[in-house]
Structures are given as C-alpha cells and as structure tokens.
Specification:
The protein is an alpha/beta fold. Helices cover 43% and strands 18% of the residues. The strands form 2 sheets. A 6-stranded mixed β-sheet has the order 2-1-3-4-5-9, with helices on both faces. A 3-stranded antiparallel β-sheet has the order 6-7-8, covered by helices on one side. A hairpin with a 6-residue loop joins strand 7 and strand 8. It is globular. It starts with 6 loop residues before the first helix and ends in a 7-residue tail after the last strand.
Length: 228
C-alpha cells in the first residue's frame, strides 16, 4: 500500500481521536525509516509532537530499551512499523510494564490477520491497525470473496489486505486488457485510466493522472478472536 492509502490518513485519525504526542517505533530497515520521515513531516504540519523514535533489528526481541523510553516519555499514542515476530516481544513487554491500550494505544501498519493467526492475538487485543481491507468487512461482496478464497485455499486460512490488493490488481489488469484488446503495456496503461472495480473493500477506482488507486482507509481494532 502507498503511504496515501495507509499512513497519512491513519496518522491524521490518530491525532484527531487519540492524542498529538506521538512515539514512533519500527524495524530497522528502509521502509520504517522512510515511513517515519513522512510521518514526522505530517505530525509537524498538524501541530503534533514526536516525542521519540526508536528502531529494532529485524527479528530481534531486544525491545526493553525502547519500552523504557516509552514509559519515560508517556506519549498519547505509539505508531508502529515493527515487522514480524518482534511484535510479540514488543507488545508483551508493554503489557508486562502496565502499558495496555487504555493507557497508551498503539496503531500498527504491518499487523494483519495472518500475523494475528501466526502470533496469537492475546498480546494485541484492544490495539489498532490501519489497512484498506479487513476480513471482517460486512458486505455481500466481501463474504463472496472470502468464501471463494477459503474454498480454494482452505477454511483455516485468513484473508489480509495485501491479498485483497493482489486480487484487485489482477482484475483491473484483466479489465484493461479487454478494453484495450491487447496486452501491450502502453495500451493497457491507457485503458486503466478511470477504471473502477467493486472490490471486497468497497468500490475503488484508478486516478487517470497518477494511475494510483482511490481506496478506502480503515482503522481496525484487534479483538480476542484474532480478527479486527
């Protein structure tokens, strides 16, 4: 997902609905650092304050120093771009130190249904995630999408935002090929302009200038069943 699909609107939501004193935490590689550079600029423009920024080596469980800094700074909200199993260590450490969602909520940008299924949802219940799609969307289109997915891949599988995004991409490409009557890249790009699709997340459309999608933005809250 592009930052305009996920980061920017959810940062605005967090400042409007939780508080404007923010701590940024992420895994130590290019995306979290680039994302936080964008978030820093946005928070400054919204008159918020970034109290601190910390990074954890990918796969590491050494989260203690950052959790202690969070306890010291007492932000209103944590914005997290932590990836993988480090999330379990981070959230468990928060809980052990008394930091629950009622005290300092966290909005995550890389925890989806698959991660909750793999890691268990206990440590994450009550916290938030920002995506365009959640499996729990209550619509006939989404229910059909989930049923067809599970029929093909198994009832125990969950569906996530990246999966839905891939599904959208294939359908938009196919529509553009049919419209262009060709698989030529230039012709397909031209045919994509102003395309729309009734996606599981809701109706989406292609911006004719940037060829990016106009998509829904949703904030999900983790519940005990491993869903949002």
């Amino acid at each position: 997902d592009a930052t305009s699909h996920q980061l920017v609107p959810s940062v605005k939501w967090g400042l409007d609905n939780i508080g404007n004193r923010v701590y940024l935490v992420g895994s130590n590689y290019v995306f979290p650092r680039a994302a936080n550079a964008i978030i820093n600029d946005q928070i400054k423009s919204l008159k918020g304050e970034v109290l601190g920024e910390g990074y954890i080596k990918l796969g590491s469980n050494e989260v203690g120093a950052i959790v202690e800094e969070i306890l010291l700074l007492k932000p209103d909200v944590i914005l997290s771009t932590i990836n993988g199993d480090t999330n379990v260590a981070f959230f468990k450490a928060l809980r052990e130190r008394g930091v629950t969602p009622d005290v300092i909520p966290t909005v995550s940008f890389s925890i989806a249904e698959t991660e909750l299924k793999q890691m268990g949802s206990d440590a994450f219940v009550g916290d938030y995630a920002a995506w365009n799609y959640f499996e729990s969307i209550d619509s006939d289109t989404n229910k059909k999408f989930i049923a067809e997915f599970k029929k093909r891949f198994g009832e125990d599988r969950v569906v996530t935002d990246p999966m839905e995004a891939a599904y959208i991409g294939v359908h938009l490409w196919a529509k553009a090929v049919n419209k262009a009557g060709s698989t030529d890249v230039a012709q397909v790009r031209e045919a994509l302009k102003l395309s729309s699709f009734a996606a599981p997340e809701g109706a989406i459309s292609v911006d004719p200038k940037s060829l990016h999608l106009w998509k829904w933005v949703r904030i999900g809250r983790v519940n005990p069943s491993g869903q949002f």
